[in-house]
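B., you asked whether I could sanity-check this one before it goes into the benchmark set. Here's the sequence:
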Amino acid sequence: MSRLTHLDEQGRASMVDVSEKAVTSREAVASARVRMQPETLKLIAEGGHKKGDVLAVARIAGIQAAKRTHELIPLCHPLLLTGIRVELSVNEDECCIDIEAGCRVSGQTGVEMEALTAASVAALTLYDMCKAVDRGMVIESVQLLEKQGGKSGHWRREEQE
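And here's what the prediction gave me:
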């Protein structure tokens, strides 16, 4: 197993020096899910929430969060992202909102944390906007789905049944 990269030679937390790494195209995709009561899902899907378009607000929150990941996650490099997408879809069969976030950069380090942060903050925003009608919502399955680029190349989560 390789050593953790955010520890220096003395075992202290430190930001990784990426100055020697090549600039490459890098992409990452992450997801999250917010489970809720059927009535809450219907309220969101029909746009009937008194706070407005909950899905649009959560999408913008996810985009903003990706751009500020370095301010939220200690030792995370600030990146000039070249693309961010956050998609939210109503899943009536499983009574949830599925979130997928993708981030892109040309740089010396990956964007996995940015994609994970975008998906997480979009989920938290859904919870915040709907907690008055459904405190029992559950945020789950925040996970990296895929990453491309950089020294480690391409990785994709295998489907789980």
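One thing to flag: The two ends are 27 Å apart (CA to CA). Otherwise nothing jumped out at me.
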